[in-house]
Amino acid sequence: MSYLLSATCAVPAVGAVVTAALPAGTGEARRRTTKAVALAVSVATLGLAAAVAASFEPGGARYQLTESYSWIRSFGIDFALGADGIGTALVLLTAVLVPLVMLAGWHDADPAAAEGSFESKRRTQGFFALILAVEAMVLVSFLATDVFVFYVFFEAMLIPMYFLIGGFGDRAGGPDAARQRSYAAVKFLLYNLLGGLVMLAAVIGLYVVAADQGQATFGLPALTDAISSGKLVIDPTAQRALFLGFFFAFAVKAPMWPLHTWLPNAMGESTAGTAVLITAVVDKVGTFAMLRFCLGLFPDASKTFAPAILVLSLIGIVYGALVAIGQKDIKRLVAYASISHFGFIIMGIFAMTSQGQSGATLYMVNHGISTAAWMLVAGFLISRRGSRLIADYGGVQKVAPVLAGTFLIGGLATLSLPGLAPFVSEFLVLVGTFTRYPVIGVIATFGIVLAALYALMLYQRTMTGPVKESVTGMPDLKARELAVVAPLVALTLLLGVYPQPLTRMVNPAVDDTLSQVHRTDPAPVHPVAANGGEQK
Amino acid sequence: MSPIHALAAAGGNSPSIPAPHVEYGQLSPMLVVFGAALVGILAEAFLPRRLRAATQLGISLAGLVGGFVAVVVLAAQGHATTRAGLLAMGSVAIDGPALFLQGVILLTAVLAVLTYAEGRLEPRINGHRIDAFAAQAAAVPGGEQERTATREGLRTTEIYPLTLFAVGGMLLFPASNDLLTMFVALEVLSLPLYLMCALARRRRLLSQEAAVKYFLLGAFASAFFLFGTALLYGYAGTVRLGEIADVVAGTAPVTPALAVTTQNDALLLIGLAMLAVGLLFKVGAVPFHSWTPDVYQGAPTPVSGFMAAATKTAAFGAMLRLFYVAFPGLRWDWRPVMWGVAILTMVVGSILAVTQQDVKRLLAYSSVAHAGFILTGLIATDRRGVAAVLFYLLAYSFVTLGAFAVVTLVRDSKGEATHLSNWAGLGRRSPLLAAVFALFLLAFAGIPLTSGFTGKFAVFQAAAGGGATPLVIVGVLSSAIAAFFYIRVIVLMFFSDPQPAGPAVAVPSALTATTIAFGVLVTLGLGLLPQYFLDLASKASLFIR
């Protein structure tokens, strides 16, 4: 048994505790030590995640590097971890993004003079410890092969996330920023907690049904094997109810229209780094879990509900894009754009074709990288002017060309420009959907057009045109900020032209998932191939 | 045969009353505690005033810890499992659930007594340390006598023997195997509690009002219980729980003297309903919950914590025994009713808590909601259900004690600042205390990795396994509502601006600190590594009859 996976999860967890316990103080030196420790921990985690990816064999077993420790025997719960292609890809994404988020938010937790004497002295420690705690819990969620363990961390990550949203804002809010922020934090928590509790009922239900048939376990491989081999038969009504319980939680987390309304608040009010953490990392747990748990555990119900879910995701694609076009606030615009993208991801998953699902998995990774680039640059822009309103900017490309250039790349990646990473995944999702549901595939294509609108209009309004008075003298990106953006831009380009390493890793897991739901790709309709012989 | 049964049958012909055989060893937890209570009364009568507080604390701790050791020894000797048995001629049962709950009650009481003795929170008067209890309970609030007593720094040290008597009753309550013993235990635990509620040093009128309300309603509930007992005796000709079950099942011979009433189902059902009312009142289930917020708010906070934790544990223990030992054959009759009660309790407790503006009232309504969650485990009617309820009570007791102990620390010049607006910004002034309270609230809300989640999972799982899936769904939905008000307090503590003249957090002595630390430890321990205690509860889940 290898300890690589548990080490990958344990390092940030221990790091969070250590960071939180570092000596308090408002001095610059103390703060710098804290940040350095936290950053070092996240880089170490990245190293471990890279080791996981390196030792993962794409052609091997579905779950590799597995570990299992007895946790709560009374309920048949093991602390079981295992990496499959999809999980490994997302583990890598998380491990890459967290150090960058920390660097981007380097000064977000410095106490501002204006915030008064009641300010806690442990603010910096708290901020970085919370980020590490979120990372640890997300990593466990991606690697857990026990339904209960997944549930526990899926739910527990809400707490550090909640304090990150509520406790640390970008100082661009209005006079009632604190109230807005705590509203956003509570909304985030209540939506997700409700989703999680509904899932809890379904988790218990699943266990009861499984225990009745002699499968008293929460182990995912055991359950999926039992289901696909017919040893565990969940009757259709129960299966639909359980599926809905799980799916509701994931749809809130993802978030899918119409359960999305917490996302713009949460992303708008928190720091840019936290917003990236929400949309690029935490929300991915939702879509990841649809793929792994909904399809694997409830194959028949998944097929039953797939058309309805496709319609909802289609609405999400168009609605998110339309609302994004109308936004006045940069960060809320990015949030609505993400809702549109989550629509694509969910569509790819429930189209139930191999292209659609590998596309969806790539989409999770690519959306994470491109949105991180876009959002973090937007955060740098906002921190310079102290405003989130699009109308307060104009002509930035003349004073800060590098900032404007990277912002453009982020925007172009979001609208899936060919050559950049998201194009590959969006194309795969659309093709995968089209082969089974042509009408939905065609309508979804309009999402791309709308994406071009919101992304380019944002660039045009903020970066081009005459230089606004408020923008004059705006400094360009600093070395720290460049260090954040450069890897993201590089990854966007690299995965845009050479996605093979990722697809090789992901495809076997996708095929396995499809075989669990007993779905094969529709036979291609090829007029040329059909009468090819006659032409000769 | 049961003595009452025998007397009724013999009609007074028996030549002599046989001396009952009493197993002192197995009753030792209760005997030790009652003994300590008597010693406490003697100390109260004969010791000089300045020595009393410390001595009483020592006696109480010795009694409670001694009782706990006795429980552990009994459990180690197998009295919870293989050697479980009926004692004192069948009127007391020492078995797994009884010993488990006695252990929980004794530990809770130890920690509660520590918070009683806290003397650092109130400012000293003339050099005398004072505590949370009235200077002189008999003095009229606001009168000259009260002022004198306060000036002299008097303390109501009677609280310690009163607590010990209450604990003794609580130990007997879940262990009593006949309805009369159960009634006696109910009274022994209730009467001291009524008094203890009236003993607050500050806001004495509120405290006395709480005591009167609790007393009147409690007396009513006791009367229901007693009436139910009488009706059941009429039905079954016995008050032994196991024998009632036999009569219900139709396997027991009919007593000739009671042939007219025996097997009259009206007596049985009405009697059962009345017993249930008496017990549901004690656990604070809707619709018998209305005393809870007033009493929890008015009582001295350490007493509120003790009541919320220990009384609930004892009453649920008695309820489990009653339903599982005496009325398993009637479960098709009582389960639907208990379904309704559980749903009402969860929903009403959660919804009313949302509107509360006072921390103690909020905790009171939250305890109502938790009673509902525990009831879902009781309804499972199997061993898993019993184990789940036992574990839940263990988890819940320590969170509750810890939460009330934290409440005692947030103070302004008028004493405890329990209004929620006073708690705004507490997280910025005292991050540690606010973090601890937040942990307790998260445990109440049932967030994973805390004891509250494990407990909730256990009862819901037992309920779902017992075919009560709708209850589980109502349970998770009311958990979501409940989460709203717990989170509201967290928001207030961490994200709101502090009031300029807000309360300060008093620095407690090691006594209260121990209670809080223990609460934190148990909350995290039962959340992260619950296996040992789940095993313990599971092993202890078999009732003897």
Automatic annotation (TrEMBL), chain A:
Protein's recorded name: NADH:ubiquinone oxidoreductase subunit M
Family: Belongs to the complex I subunit 4 family.
Main location, first listed in the record: membrane
Entry-linked InterPro entries: NADH_Q_OxRdtase_chainM/4, NADH_UbQ_OxRdtase, ND/Mrp_TM
Record's bilayer topology term: Multi-pass membrane protein
BP term (GO), one: electron transport coupled proton transport
Residue ranges of the TM segments: 36-56, 77-106, 126-154, 188-210, 241-263, 275-298, 304-326, 333-352, 364-382, 402-425, 437-459
Gene Ontology terms, MF aspect: NADH dehydrogenase (ubiquinone) activity; NADH dehydrogenase activity; ubiquinone binding
Keywords, alphabetical: Membrane, Transmembrane, Transmembrane helix, Ubiquinone
Cellular component per GO, a single term: membrane
Domain spans labelled NADH:quinone oxidoreductase/Mrp antiporter transmembrane: 144-450
PANTHER family: NADH-UBIQUINONE OXIDOREDUCTASE CHAIN 4
Lineage top rank: taxon: Bacteria
Subcellular location: Endomembrane system; Membrane
Keyword Membrane listed: yes
UniProt cross-references to Pfam families, sorted A to Z: Proton_antipo_M
Listed NCBIfam families: NDH_I_M, PRK05846.1-4
Automatic annotation (TrEMBL), chain B:
Pfam families: Proton_antipo_M
Main location: membrane
Source organism, top-level taxon: Bacteria
Keyword Zinc in annotation: no
GO biological process: ATP synthesis coupled electron transport
PANTHER family recorded: NADH DEHYDROGENASE (PTHR22773)
Similarity annotation: Belongs to the complex I subunit 2 family.
Subunit structure as annotated in this protein's UniProt entry: NDH-1 is composed of 14 different subunits. Subunits NuoA, H, J, K, L, M, N constitute the membrane sector of the complex.
Name of protein: NADH-quinone oxidoreductase subunit N
Lineage: Bacteria, Bacillati, Actinomycetota, Actinomycetes, Kitasatosporales
Gene coding for it: nuoN
